[in-house]
Amino acid sequence: MITLYTQHQIRTVQSLDSLWQYYFPTEGMTVSPQADLSQLNERKLQVPGVWESLPEYANYRGQALAVKKITLTKDAPLRIVFAGVSHTAQVYIDGELLGRHHNAYTGFAFDIPRAKAGEHELRVHISNEHGEGSALHVPNDYYNYGGISRQAHLHLLAQPIYIENLHLTPGVDENPRKVSAKAFVKNLNRDSVTATLSISVCGQTKEAQLTAPGNGTSETELIFELPGADLWEPENPALYEFHARLLMNGEEVVDDLIERTGLRTVAVKGEQVMLNGKPIKIAGFNRHEDHPDFGCAIPVAMMVKDIELMLAMGANSVRTSHYPNDRRFLDLCDEYGLLVWEENHARGLRDEKFKHPLLQEQCMQCNEEMVTQHYNHPSIILWAIMNECMSDSEEGRILYKEQLDQLRSLDQSRPLTYATFRLREDLCQDLPDICSWNLYPNWYIHQPPAEALDVIQEYNEPKGMKGKPLILSEFGAGALYGYHDPIRRGKWSEERQCDLLKELFEDFTASSRVMGLYVWQFCDVRVDESWAMSRPRTMNNKGIVDEYRRPKLAFSLVKKYFDAFLSSP
Ligand code: ADA
Predict the structure, then answer these.
(1) What span, in angstroms and rounded, lies between the C-alpha atoms of 323 and 312?
(2) Residue whose CA is closest, atom 10 of ligand 1?
(3) Most exposed: 5, 91, 195, 505, by fewest CB within 10 Å?
(4) For 126-151, how does the pLDDT look when each residue is reduced to its tens digit (9 = 90+)?
(5) Does residue 459 sit in helix, strand or coil?
(6) Which tens digit of pLDDT belongs to each residue from 164-216?
(7) How confident is the model at residue 73, as a pLDDT?
(8) Cβ atoms within 10 A of the Cβ of 560, count?
(9) How far apart are the CA of 312 and the centre of ligand 1, in A?
């Protein structure tokens, strides 16, 4: 999908990031994709962007049409790429349906093998509704925005055959400087096509002949050894661009794709996570993609600010709670050397929500798109699924196992985990490579943090956690920015948040069993109105900075404990 670095020098790519015309229904919350636009409320909205940025649509949950005129100067095969539409899209060109996509947090694309020169209307029907069509986008402790929330591009292809993806896997023969480069070439022709794949990196070029089946995809692997290359590690996040080219008749370059990665290996060894063969400790934040001015469509400059603030607090990692993130944020993590826990889109789906008939299908699709699109980011050191869903039921175990097996089939180079809070009832601890727990002692329940940790070990070491790395994937407390209560130190005061975090850090960092810590959460975020009674301001206020990234008192406390934890053996 769409990145911060240039992915094509041969293929022509046009950004569609600009003001689009949005059309909202005058009443109710439905609008037909073929609606007469003159009967609708027309507004301008930037892409990427969300309609909640428009004052009159700040609370709008419904449907809208986003329209963009495009002009092609010649007949050409066309690929229309969306890095994310929140949360359900139907894409039309000149009134013809190209396809649908569900889920705000993964990208998608549609191919038009022979688009005609001239002006065309691109029309996207968008819904951010809650309803039976979505098992994952439900009223939740974060907000489901509406709009073309990530970038959009037009790809003008030279031929109806192109390099769809290039997966780079360091660690061949357990050598991080030995890299598998696997190219996926998609053929839009009816008949099979033979071509030459050429891949260059660090002055080396290798080629292979391939035959792409008609209306199908071929997979071609080349192996590179880069003996003089730097490894990717937080202290030196060295990155390398692999330039793949597709040649016809052995000489005419018809397409290209540049993918970037870092040479590193990640593995689990006993209770440790190993990066390039060395044990690491993890200290970081849970971060939602959320901002009061931009919703989930956070500009890159804001992403940079978030990373700088996390680093200023001594973090070396970020958890993409609770969905795959924008590739540009992952690019920044690659460049900063910030380790990433990336997870699929599922939060707190239990009981009736977990039984939703579309749950597994929508999770499996999200898993496939997450891994396929984010595969090359060296900063992603682990994949996760199903935050606080039903890992405490036999039915749930079946779905957890199916999803973890799916991830292992897609990527053998990263360990897997899931975050649970079912201290005594979890039934899946034998399934992941790493065991991860969300704990809120002394916030939701009165319990000494050390006791919670003891319960986790007592009940779960015998059930599969023994001998695996242990991450505390969430812990924290709430505070309203600017609410000070230095004497009583009542709940929601910044002082109380400091007191509770101090207790949590003291107990959790005292345990040599814990190799990873993620504070819940980096910044305050908007939540669904249905959560308002337990969420002052209709916000989740457990941020260490508020929604405008203004630091609370706990900012320096977190830094103190992160620094101590990461510098201790
Ligand atoms: C859970 C959940 C988070 C958030 C947190 C909280 O652990 O995973 O998304 O809701 O609790 O603030 O209570």
Answers:
(1) 24
(2) 141
(3) 5
(4) 999 999 999 999 999 999 999 999 99
(5) helix
(6) 999 999 999 999 999 999 999 999 999 999 999 999 999 999 999 999 999 99
(7) 96
(8) 13
(9) 24
